[in-house]
């Protein structure tokens, strides 16, 4: 095979303020025939840096309705190929994964499936996590066989233009490929906390809306479905990730990841409890004792 052979897959990179890692991301996908950065009006240098690296750049503005961003890409981008690899601006396919996609495309094996689940090589605090909780992402999809469903979560906080934490539906079998998708966020830990604070808003909201929660739960992995109603979930996750999955072998990063993700589940549980205790919007507690202010006395004390 010629060394300049381009893999007939369209790479789509949804971005928002990804200038810190976008060049490394784009360098990792040079073997693919088409690369499109779909940027949500970033005020930083994401767009000019992407153009300088030779990528197509599409400016994206969400109108608050369906489709959300990834489905919008499948519906509206000028894609030259039916197969689409979705990666974030802080991700890059490993050399082994690129080779596996190339071989599957060359032999036609790729068309036996409707999508592929890819294992993530997750980095936390600058260190790759070889143990502990492992993440899988349905990131290589056939655009005519894959749909991100409209689930009725437009009113949910936390996600906005992004599809939530669920897998798209697929017409056909879902395959696996060797190699990993490297997730290495260059932003500080505070960014991780802020992002997962938003995610916990979304998770708490949907869990307090049973019909929505049921729809989304069907689109999650079997492991996530089993784990949903685990008692003492924050503690259970820590024991699962750090002890059972031997996250302790990743040193301090493994410990901090287990703690941080446990804290994420704790935030969800607290926000659910808070939501149950809040009165519905627009209601008044008629039983509450009104506070009467003695205006004359108040005025004298201020003077």
Description:
- InterPro entries: Glyco_trans_2-like, Nucleotide-diphossugar_trans.
- It holds the Pfam family Glycos_transf_2.
- Residues 10-106 form the Glycosyltransferase 2-like domain.
- This is Glycosyltransferase involved in cell wall biosynthesis.
- The chain is of the alpha/beta class and 303 residues long.
- The chain has a single domain (7-277), classed as Spore Coat Polysaccharide Biosynthesis Protein SpsA, Chain A, CATH 3.90.550.
- It is 38% helix and 20% strand.
- It contains ten helices and eleven strands.
- It has helices at 22-27, 46-52, 69-76, 95-107, 189-207, 210-217, 222-227, 233-244, 251-277, 295-302, and strands spanning 7-15, 32-39, 56-59, 83-86, 91-93, 115-124, 127-128, 136-142, 146-147, 169-170, 174-183.
- The strands form two sheets. Strands 1, 2, 3, 4, 5, 6, 7, 8 and 11 form a nine-stranded mixed sheet that branches. Strands 9-10 form a two-stranded antiparallel sheet.
- Helix 5 (189-207) packs parallel to helix 9 and helix 8 (233-244) packs antiparallel against helix 9.
- Residues 283-303 have low confidence and may be disordered.
